[in-house]
Write a structure and sequence with these properties.
six-stranded parallel sheet; 13% strand; 247 residues; Rossmann fold
Amino acid sequence: MPTPRKVAVVTGAARGLGRAISQRLAEDDIDIAVWDLNLEGAEETAKMVAEMGVKTVACKVDTSSAADIAAAVQKTHDALGKVSILVNNAALSPFCKFEELTEEAWDSLMAINLKGPFLCTKAVIEDMKEAGWGRIVNISSSSAQTGASSMAHYAASKGGVIGFTKALALEYATRGITVNNVPPNFINTEGLREAPVDVEAFAQNSAPMKRTGKPRNIAAAVAFLASDDADYITGHTLGVNGGRYCN
């Protein structure tokens, strides 16, 4: 009986890190479900991935919505099959001084950055349990490890992602499912270039390597954690941060 192909769901994959992760996993002959609220961008990523020779599907998904996620899981199952890899990448990363931070802004960020990984994981964990094999890779942030001025809500949400990772890793350690997280530092993506700060100057002053990273740096870390070679690694925080935070 042939071994089923691996299927990865990558959230927030319309551009930036999610797109790079999708392409890197496709290099390993993994079929890709591209999930994003931006359907046009998701379809563009899916086209790029399809040109690499794997099957793919694009889904419009608000990852804070259980209904959206359920519909995307069904579409993914119909197009590609059961999910074996989940990369929780979708997130917001706004700047806001704490005294200007509203309850509404806090709640909306937590809905995407922390509730989103919870909902997405709940939606696909049965696929992994049935297969006795699964990989969950959460994209956290070095801001949760070091703190970040004017980003209290963001740092708190990503700290929650790290705690969520560790708890799930322990719960599923005997089920063939590993759960790890990758906290990036300053990665040169569209989102970073849109930030209201001089990113290059900030990286020069705060990162030991004195430069930003590349999306492929994060994608390579995710691909390793999603591989068979990483089957004895779980609950781990694999920092890709140019030395900003040393474990």
